[in-house]
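Notebook, bench 3.
Goal today: get a predicted structure for Replication initiation protein from Coprococcus comes so we can plan the truncation constructs. The sequence was checked against the plasmid map this morning, with no discrepancies at the termini. Length recorded as 290 residues. Pasting the sequence as submitted so the record is complete.
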Amino acid sequence: MKKRFYDNYDYEEAYQKQCEKLEEWELEKLMKDGKVACLYRTTTTKSQNIKSGTTLLEAQVYPSFMNKADMPVTKKKRETRPSQSNLNDKNARRYIIRLANINFGKGDIWATFGWNDDCLPDSVERARKDITNFIKRINRRRKKAGLENAKYIYILAFDGYKRPHFHILISGDGIDRDQLEKLWGKCDRPNTRRIMPDDKFLLTGLATYITQNPHGTKRWCPSKNLKKPPEPKRSYSKFKKSQVERMVKNFDTLKKQLEKAYPGYEFLDAEVKYNGINAAFYIYARMVRN
């Protein structure tokens, strides 16, 4: 009979303590005193930009337990569907970042638009209607120029519903920034810029910025013509438990093992966290291939 493993839990909720705060002897004691029966499962997600071909890889290494009682109890399961209701959900934020890294690049536009007092929307629905009409005007212009509908992701932000605004990533071909601002026409101080992706992290920094939610609520909406992130690949055999325990104790070892496991990819960064109850670890790493 095939052995069953238990890993359907939210590992980012279960593993929050940073390993970098522990001395090596503390890590050794943690692994010795809290030893549980587990192996490590790896989820690999790749986001290849459609313009440059650069691929950003995310690797998540987390424990898969042999006994159900050892699995952490968390509010959510391992992977939940990204919600478009708001951006308090980390899965939605990470999904948007992947969409941005795949679909947008040099020459595209990111912008922030608001509303003047005389045309301030009185509801979320009215604000979204204004944005939808704005995108329709853009697409009519694109159609006249023989272009397909624009790709976009917009994020509507509002705080107590006093001063809503929205961020948008949108195709930059066939339109300049002045035309875009004129087509919106509902605020005196729009902010539009041409996108200049980072050579290694692509649009991660920009997408992280516009998905932050320090106040109020944010809702996001993607166009239907975006290329979607591929399904993650999962493996129980990419990293053995002994490998993981060496990796979490030594950053150089972690880098070396990741680059060996993913040939052709350059290591960018990683975070390592642990759970003091079961003495198991969680690794989130990013790598790039140009």
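The chain has two domains: 11-79+232-289, 97-222. The chain has a mean pLDDT of 90.
Flagging this for group meeting.
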